[in-house]
Amino acid sequence: MGAGLLWAGQGAIMTSYPPVTHKSTYISIFWSIFNLGGVIGGLIPFILNYHRTQAASVNDGTYIAFMCFMSAGMVLSLAILPPSRIVRDNGSRATAVTYPSVSAEGIEILKLFANWKMLLIIPAASRSNFFYSYQFNNVNGILFNLRTKGLNNVFYWGAQMIGSLAIGYLLDFSFRSRRKRGLIGISVITVLGTAIWAGGLANQLRYTDGKWPNKLDFKDSGSSYAGPFALYFSYGLLDAMFQSLWYWVIGALADDSETLSRYSGFYKGVQSAGAAVAWQVDEHKTPLVWQLIVNWVLTTVSNPLLALLVMMAVNDDESAARGKGVEGKEPEPEPEDIWRQNFKIAMEFYLF
């Protein structure tokens, strides 16, 4: 429950505080700092268990270190400014949040389940953490010994830092058209995702029964370690690129903190529901090949829906995306966007 509150608030801040033209850059900065925690989280068990190659679990010091870092993060969060005090580099301000009654907010949240934009988000949101149980338990957990698992996680989360920075540059600076940047980002992730999951399938076919008797060690296993390590590293790279892209899309759907807090909460809620299902799939000993195939299919299906959302809902006029045009007036729709408006009307009518 604490994580739910944390991620909804974090998502609203990350998507509404930055300038419209640099949202992906700020998302990448967040994702890099966030995954630096994962790097440290991998280093701690690696260092503390370096000489315990046969141990089945980490020692008490690992948990104590985790609690120290979490406590430090709690104190640092007190320095976060509210939206009303945020002034961006271009002089604009983040929108202040108005607090409706509980019943009114509940109604607004329920409306999200009839919002065509949020419905297009559901497949990707549900798969965005779905693969963790497979990757953590059935790749890193089965193939490697204890200390090597910790080292692998250092590079897994380090790969996320690299991936988020790469996709962040692409989404903010690669093309003049914001919609084109989004579509190019989706294309890159689709190609990479296909290649990485294909490599994962080739690796998975080597232990379809879920058993790997001779655990791989980064020092002793030689070339046998390189392939599975590269695959696990690539999984982390793809995860960061996909999730950074999704936050960019959410941030492009609106600019006010109130709306984006609901969108972020919806995304994280669906994401957590998908993860809950995934852990139960693994708990019930579903064949590992089928777990991989499900993850691959969910990835493949969600990308076209994401492309559709970008084409229909992401505004190419970044000044208009701030919510007001020149002299505080609502921006007029461009003639070429009429078909998009008609599609939205049809979708809303159909869903209603």
Automatic annotation (TrEMBL):
At the top level of its lineage, which domain of life is listed? Eukaryota
Spans through the membrane = 26-50, 62-81, 154-171, 183-205, 225-253, 293-314
Q: Which Pfam families match?
A: UNC-93
Question: Which keywords belong to this entry?
Answer: Membrane, Transmembrane, Transmembrane helix
- The signal peptide annotation in the UniProt record is none
> GO CC: one term?
membrane
**Compartment annotation:** Membrane
User: Keyword Cell cycle, does the record have it?
Assistant: no
* Main subcellular location of this protein, as a coarse class: membrane
* Keyword Transmembrane on entry: yes
Q: Topologically, how does it sit relative to the membrane?
A: Multi-pass membrane protein
Q: Which SUPFAM superfamilies match?
A: MFS general substrate transporter (SSF103473)
- The protein depicted here goes by the name UNC93-like protein 1
